[in-house]
Specification:
There is one protein chain. This protein is of the alpha+beta class and 102 residues long. It has 3 helices and 8 strands; from the N terminus they run E-E-E-H-E-H-H-E-E-E-E. Helix content is 25%, strand content 34%. The two termini are 24 Å apart. The strands form 2 sheets. It has a 5-stranded mixed beta sheet with strand order 1-5-6-7-8. It has one domain (8-101). It has helices spanning 30-35, 47-58, 64-70, and strands spanning 8-10, 17-20, 26-29, 44-46, 71-78, 81-86, 93-96, 99-101. A hairpin with a 2-residue loop joins strand 5 (71-78) and strand 6. Bound molecules: zinc ion (ZN). This is Recombinase zinc beta ribbon domain-containing protein. InterPro entries: Zn_ribbon_recom_dom. Residues 5-59 form the Recombinase zinc beta ribbon domain.
Length: 102
């Protein structure tokens, strides 16, 4: 689907993460994907997982377009360490391993 095209960044290299269709749609570090593990880490996150966090926060189903319009940027360290920032000045969703702040 690629709802978050150009909004998902790898926290290690600050580059946009690349969308891949595999595993139902996921973002992976483009530096790692293009240049290999000497250059960055294999940072990945599933798109579905990001969308589920946002819909849990707002307690409603949203279309990809609504989700995309709401999101300013997503900074990913790995699949359990990420930040979702919003355009509407709402507090970001912070996922820190076992701890999540909605
Ligand atoms: Zn990276």
């Amino acid at each position: 689907m690629n709802a978050y095209s150009r909004k998902v960044k790898c926290s290690h290299c600050n580059k946009n993460m690349k969308y891949k269709r595999e595993s139902g749609g996921k973002y992976t570090c483009s530096t790692y994907d293009n240049l290999g593990k000497e250059h960055c880490q294999r940072t990945t996150v599933k798109e579905e997982f990001i969308s589920s966090l946002i819909m849990r926060r707002y307690r409603k189903e949203m279309s990809d377009e609504e989700l995309r319009n709401l999101v300013d940027c997503i900074i990913v360290e790995d699949n359990l360490l990420l930040e979702i920032h919003f355009k509407n000045n709402d507090e970001p969703i912070l996922l820190k391993g076992n701890f999540i702040q909605f």
